[in-house]
Amino acid sequence: MTSPDFELVVATSVGDAVEALAGERPARVLAGGQSLVPLLVTRAVRPSVLVDVNEVGLDGVAVDRAAGLLRLGATVRHRTVERHPTIRRWAPLLAAAAAWVGHPPIRHRGTLGGSLAHADPAAELPAAVVALDGSVTVRGVAGARILAAADLAAGPFATVLAPDELVAEVAVPLAGQRAGAAFCEWAPRHRDRAEAGVGVAVEADARGACTGARGATCGVTPRPVDLTDVLDDALRGVTVGGPLPDALVRHVAGAVTGVCREHGAGTDSAALAGAMAARAAVRAMGPTPEADAA
Q: Given 68, 118, 211, 265, which is the most exposed site by the fewest CB atoms within 10 A?
């Protein structure tokens, strides 16, 4: 099949992009195109205008020490999220999650902002940003507004963005000096859509005790499930860098399973999420970084 006819607008500024999106004809943002192009080819979406934002300059990676945030432009590629040394240092969970996104060619083209705006329930990066209590800056004709990442998705493949708005920036708190992170997921075949994925990030003090843990799921429910309360309760005070007691691992799995069921996950999906959470917690709390999933 071929895509329906459309006009391509190559925006050179955020203002240009917003103006094109705010026109009378239905429009969609084109960045990496890894999610949008298949929808066009199958005619699942039929925009009259595609607004290319690759020349807008939203590909920056910056450490904002005053605000305590890592700021990432919306068109930062998945591969950059996975490999960039600044991101690996200050947001290791994002790097761990990006390694699970599709295949390398997809990661070379797909974008961080595009993943969040597409709101695929199985997407890893939205879950990672939610786990880190991140925020999203969106721009539209009325100006800019900042949303909690947890509030961006309205449901599967749907967001709270207005038709004239686009994701401009993603920000997450800077990780500490003794941060650990891991992302684990399960799919029927290698690189299939995840049926359950969990990202876990932990912080430790100078004595090696966990001072906080955060996490979230993908693939289990229509939106990421924030697991921070149960993970923090289970892992706070536990020594980082050594094996976790079997009883604690089982507790994490059971607690996460219960939370996912409360959020509408089926019995099997909830149990699978619990197992992935336990595995991610072990790796995040362990002495060695998670291996590359590529």
A: 68
pLDDT tens per residue, range 76-115 = 999 999 999 999 999 999 999 999 998 888 898 899 999 9
CATH topology (fold) of 61-173: 3.30.465
What fold does the segment set 179-285 form as a domain?
Answer: Enolase-like; domain 1 (3.30.390)
3-state helix, strand, coil in the chain (%, to 5): 35, 25, 40
Where, residue-wise, is CATH 3.30.390.50 in the chain? 179-285
pTM over 0.85: yes
- Please write the tens of the pLDDT for every residue from 33-89: 777 777 777 877 888 888 999 999 999 999 999 999 999 999 999 999 999 999 999
